[in-house]
Amino acid sequence: MKWLREGDCESVYCREIEPADIEAVPEFQSAFISGEQELKNRDLARKWITVNLPENLRDGFYKARQLELQKLIKQAEQRSGGKVLSVMTDTKGTAYFTELPIGTYVISNLLPAENGNANIFWNCEIKVKAGDLSTEKPFLISNVREGAVKCLGVEKPLPACDASALGAHSNLP
């Protein structure tokens, strides 16, 4: 989980597994050893390490997030009576919604976006007027108020364990 978080990953396919990663992650070590025995080549065993990981480690988190997202979309569509549309932002938070009829819409993230030690939630009502879509005006969402931001996200701290209490209730040395 630490390796996934460090790369902001939902699966082991998001970045290449380096030799140092194999040393640091016990699950990678086991998969690497299996691959090396089968393939008789260390470099190939590292590059194909994911085939020797258990399915739940390989893509379990991603599959669970997709299932959760599909349930949330279905629930949102049932409650709103409308269709849920999806768009991805670039690294600056710019999103392009195209071919929307004139009307009022709610921009929201069904699953929070994680940023450092906080979750970010967006829930903004916007109005699409005549002419907005013919120029494909970008609609900027962000967790920082600056410039042309139209939808400001709300940050909420991630839940954290009290590390000082851990030692009092643990059998660890």
Runs in which pLDDT lies below 50 for 5 or more consecutive residues are 168-173
For the secondary structure, the number of strands is: 8
* Most strands sheet: 3 strands, mixed
SSE string, helices as H and strands as E: HHHHHEEEEEEEEH
Shape: elongated
- N→C terminal distance: 23 Å
- Count the DSSP helices: 6
Helix content: 25-40%
Describe the fold and architecture:
The longest helix is centred in the middle third of the chain and has 26 residues, at 55-80. With 173 residues, this protein is α+β, with helices and mostly antiparallel strands. The protein has helices at 2-6, 19-24, 26-39, 42-47, 55-80, 163-166, and strands spanning 94-95, 103-108, 113-115, 118-121, 123-128, 139-142, 149-152, 154-157. It has two domains: 2-60, no CATH class; 85-157, no CATH class. It is built from six helices and eight strands. The protein starts with a helix and ends in a 7-residue tail after the last helix. The strands form three sheets. It has a three-stranded mixed beta sheet, with no helix packed on it.
